[in-house]
Each structure stands twice: as C-alpha cells, then as structure tokens.
Specification:
This protein is an alpha+beta fold. The chain has one domain. The chain contains 1 helix and 4 strands. The chain has one helix at 25-37; strands at residues 4-10, 14-15, 45-46, 56-63. The strands form 2 sheets. The chain has a two-stranded antiparallel ribbon. It is elongated, with a radius of gyration of 19 Å. The N and C termini lie close together (9 Å).
Length: 65
C-alpha cells in the first residue's frame, strides 16, 4: 500500500505594530503601510486565539513510497 505525506493547513492571522505620526487616521494607515513596506526588521506575532479558530484543509498530497 502506498504511503503519502499530506500537508494540512490552518489559516491564522498575525499582527505587528507600526508607530507613525500623521494628521488623520487615514494618513496614519497609509504612512504605516509605507513604513512597514520599507522595513526589514518588523516583528510579527500570531494573534491570540487565531491559531485554533480556522478550519483545517489539505493543501498538498505527495506519494512518499
């Protein structure tokens, strides 16, 4: 009987905080995305409770033997 390696995936969300100065909340969003895009050292953390809320689904099946 063949053996398979099955990748099972669950989606999670991650967040990071970006500190910016801006005149409006909308400008703060744009500035934060620009700052994040130009950053090489952003630290992302899995959102609390995110890791066990999503339904699992198969993203790959490969025969191994």
């Amino acid at each position: 009987m063949p053996h398979y390696s099955v990748i099972i995936t669950r989606d999670v969300t991650e967040s990071t905080t970006v500190e910016v100065e801006a005149e409006t909340p909308q400008q703060a969003e744009v500035t934060a995305f620009e700052k994040l895009f130009n950053s090489t050292d952003a630290e992302w953390e899995i959102d609390e409770g995110s890791w066990n809320k999503a339904d699992a689904y198969v993203t790959g099946v490969d025969e191994t033997a």
